[in-house]
Amino acid sequence: MSGKTTTFIKENLQFFYSLILILLIPVAIIANTLWDIKKSQGNMELELQKKAELVTMVFASTISDSLDNNALLQSKINEVTGSSKEIKEITILEPQDEGFIVVASSEANNLGVIYKSLQNTSAWVEDKTIPTLVSDASQNPPERYWVIISPLKNTNLEEKALIDLKISLAEIDAATRAAAKQTLIVLTITVFAVLLLLINHFRFFEYAVLFKRLKEVDKMKDDFISIASHELKTPMAAIKGYMGMLFEGVAGKFDAKAKDHLNRVMGNVRRLDVLVNELLDVSRLEQERIQFDMQAMDIAKIITEVTNELTVQAEEKKLSVEYQPLPPPHPLIFADPDRIAQILDNVIGNALKYTFRGGVVIYHRIEGNYLKTTVKDTGVGISLQDQKHLFERFHRIRTEKTMDIPGTGLGLWIARELVLRMNGKIYATSQENVGSEFTIAFPIIRETKK
């Protein structure tokens, strides 16, 4: 077997397994059903044989004292055959010359006929009962009989004659055919249902193969994003370093127009740096590689630091940023300070990005055992349809007011994932042209000392 053939079989092992199932299971069901029918029929034939032998023995015992009276024998034969439809023929034969002559029979035409039969001779000589299953092909359908040949003895236990008893299997065969017909109908329905299930299984197998390939492609995508993001970090750091040196005057002084160009370049470098960092975070979150330094912390300190850093961005748009901390003692939450800072930077930065007048207010409230931090803006707001997809990856609000706002649509997804992995909650409420409120909730562990 060539290497290519072996590889093909290994890669498509599940396909061949499904194909074998599709062929093997219906065949096994059919074979088992036919075997059961045949076995049942054989059991019934055996039971009828025993019944025939019992009838023969009982009848023989009733005529043991009448073997010398042919007329009385004929009367008893007529009586027995008339009371049972299964008994088709009873014949009494006595030995004569080299054969056996019929002295009484349910068939009048047989009287006086001499039969020379090896079975008759064997039964007489060996003094035993011989059962034989025969079929009458002249009937349609063919009728089968159990023929029982047994010696008849008088009251002195002397062999005087033979009894030839023929019992019909017509009723059993008719019942067997009816049962077989019903069984085959059920079998056909069962096989059809099994085939449908197996075909459906085969479809699921195709979906499984497709899903596996999609997972492989998804992993390749994640690996590419991770590698590409890491590779971009080095040149980005170099660009920012050189840009910093230029702003410090290492390469000499620049006129106002050159500085304006450099500021634009630096702005785009920062945007690219944010994008690279977001892609790295997405990769780490999806691959479960992100780590958390969980500790008891005061979120008020982090909010103060983040709002101070975003003040410049707010002032450029002539927006206000107001933080309303709770009066001390401040409640503590159990979280990673750096990740909390990242979450707040994304949420507050997002609020500033989509607000054109007014400003952003950050405040707290305590509900039950939760500290809830709300970021409220006076921005463009979010429609009910967009609110359903707000925290999805790469989802961005597309309206006339927001189409020129830069962004990747990853910030809120990253914020939600970080919040959830630190056992917190995040949700939003919004009204178009009024503003939005983003709320982050964490369990309170204790309050700080005054």
Main attributes of the structure:
450 residues; alpha+beta; Beta-Lactamase; Helix Hairpins; Heat Shock Protein 90; 3 domains; seven-stranded mixed beta sheet; six-stranded antiparallel beta sheet; 10 helices; 13 strands
Topology:
Elements: H1 3-11, H2 13-62, H3 70-83, E1 87-96, E2 99-105, E3 114-115, H4 118-126, E4 130-136, E5 143-153, E6 159-168, H5 170-247, H6 256-286, E7 295-297, H7 299-316, E8 320-324, E9 331-335, H8 337-353, E10 359-367, E11 370-377, H9 384-387, H10 411-421, E12 425-431, E13 435-447
Parallel strand pairs: 8-10
Antiparallel strand pairs: 1-2, 1-6, 2-3, 4-5, 5-6, 7-9, 9-13, 10-11, 11-13, 12-13
Helix pairs in contact: 2-5, 5-6, 6-10, 7-8, 8-10
What Rg do the Cα atoms give?
49 Å
What is the string of helix and strand elements?
HHHEEEHEEEHHEHEEHEEHHEE
Tally of structural domains: 3
Q: What is the CATH domain class of the largest domain?
A: Alpha Beta
Distance between the termini: 81 Å
List low-pLDDT spans.
Answer: none
The averaged pLDDT comes out at 81
- In CATH terms, the superfamily of the largest domain is PAS domain
Total strand segments: 13
Q: Tell me the CATH topology of the largest domain.
A: Beta-Lactamase
Roughly what fraction of the amino acids lie in strands?
15-25%
CATH architecture of the largest domain: 2-Layer Sandwich
